[in-house]
Structure formats: C-alpha cells, structure tokens
Amino acid sequence: AQSVAQPEDQVNVAEGNPLTVKCTYSVSGNPYLFWYVQYPNRGLQFLLKYITGDNLVKGSYGFEAEFNKSQTSFHLKKPSALVSDSALYFCAVRDMTGKGRRALTFGSGTRLQVQP
Amino acid sequence: EPEVTQTPSHQVTQMGQEVILRCVPISNHLYFYWYRQILGQKVEFLVSFYNNEISEKSEIFDDQFSVERPDGSNFTLKIRSTKLEDSAMYFCASSEAMGGLLEQFFGPGTRLTVL
C-alpha cells in the first residue's frame, strides 16, 4: 500500500526566511510525487511534481522540492517566504509501476503560517 | 485558464436523503475522480472513472455511492442515503491521463452537511 507522511501539523516561519515543509512517502515501486496547496474555502491547487529526472523540481510561486530516493522524502522548499504563502500544503504520491492505487494518496497536510 | 467547476458549493441535507454532487471537468480531460476531506482530516480518494466506467474505487466507496457521466460535460457523485459521517468537503478532479504523468486538476469542492 502507498502512504504519505507529513510529520508537522504546522510550520511557522518569518517572512523573508527560507521555508521547508517535510514529506516522506512509501510505495512498492517508484513514485510519482506531487505537492498541492489549499487556500481557505478553495480547492487544491497543483504546485509541482516529480516524475523522473532531476531530483530538484521547480514549481509555481517560487516553490521547489527535492526528491531523495534513499530517504524516501520529497520536501517542499522556498528560499524566501511570503505572507501570502500561508495556506495548507498537501504532499501526494502514486506508484508509477501501477501496482498500487492509481489515484493519489495524500498526506495529512501541513499548515504553513508566515509571519510578517 | 480552464478549470474544474462544482455545484453546489454547499449542500445541507437530512440524514437518509439522497444527494447528487455535480462537477464539470476540464473539457479535454478523460479521467475523472472524486475525493473527500472530512473536516480537519486528510484528503481521501473515493473513485476514479474512465471511458464511462469506474476504473478504481476505495473502501469508502460502498454501495450507497455511485458515479455517472450523464452527458458529455457533467460528472456526478450520488449518495443514496446520507449518513452523518458523510459530512465532508467533496472534491472533483480531472486529468488528461491516468498514468500519473500529468497532474490532476481539482475543483473548489462541495461542502456537504448531513443533519
């Protein structure tokens, strides 16, 4: 079975500082990995994905994520946080070999709070 | 930019009643999904749909749930006899491909409240 863990319920960071939102995953084969963001009363918005290739992927709004196969992690990062980045962030995975569920499996979400 | 739309934004119903949640996926997408998010919990997969049939469903998607694509644009989720624990935000999503290479695009959600 595939699963995602987001160990932090909330991350607090000051505006202008770098931020990291952690995600680890478990799949039986190789993973497709995604980050989504959810603003209040809105749906999930796609940020970025890792399919194959370069371990560092860049996405929307200046976010990037680093795939680390040995640590089974896909942490979301941004060099300089903005107050407007405050939202709920979800990591998601699916097994690219098709052995696991083909739909996305989401983590529990991490609330990012950026203080002015 | 094309987007997934959902109606209604909020549905209140009495326990035991039937509800139908509606979604209009992005027009050139072929794969459709329903997810739900109980307040304060993670987003959970319910069902995926392709070529007019269910391609995958979770253990949550029991006999009281059904999905349909009644025409070329709408994709619906029906709950036959709602229970209190069905109260959640229901998200529709669509993608061009099932293989996971392409991301799923999510609608804004329908908040279902069962009284």
How would you describe this structure to a colleague?
- The complex is a heterodimer of chains A (116) and B (115).
- By secondary structure, chain A is mainly β.
- Chain A has a single domain, classed as Sandwich (Immunoglobulin-like).
- In chain A, the strands form 3 sheets. In chain A, strands 2, 5, 6, 10, 11 and 12 form a 6-stranded mixed sheet that branches. Chain A has a 4-stranded antiparallel sheet with strand order 3-9-8-7, with no helix packed on it.
- Chain B has one domain: Immunoglobulins (Immunoglobulin-like, Sandwich).
- Chain B contains no helices and 11 strands.
- In chain B, the strands form 2 sheets. In chain B, strands 2, 4, 5, 6, 9, 10 and 11 form a 7-stranded mixed sheet that branches.
- The termini of chain B are far apart.
- The model of chain B has no long low-confidence stretch (mean pLDDT 91).
- Chains A and B meet through strand 5, strand 6, strand 10 and strand 11 of A and strand 5 and strand 10 of B.
Q: Briefly, what is this?
A:
By secondary structure, chain A is mainly beta. Chain A is 0% helix and 52% strand. Chain B has strands at 5-7, 10-13, 19-24, 31-37, 43-50, 53-57, 65-68, 75-79, 88-95, 105-106, 110-114.
Strand content of chain B: over 45%
| Total of DSSP H or I helical runs spanning 4+ residues of chain B | 0
Give the overall shape of chain A, derived from the CA principal axes.
Answer: globular
**CATH homologous superfamily placement of chain B:** Immunoglobulins
The tally of domains of chain A stands at 1
Q: How many separate domains of chain B?
A: 1
Structure annotation, total helices of chain A = 0
> Which structural category do the helix and sheet elements of chain B fall into?
mainly beta
What percentage of residues of chain B falls in helices of 4 or more residues?
under 10%
Residue runs with pLDDT of under 50 for 5 or more positions of chain A: none
Q: Count the strands of chain A?
A: 12
Task: Fill in the CATH topology of chain B.
Answer: Immunoglobulin-like
Largest sheet of chain B: 7 strands, mixed
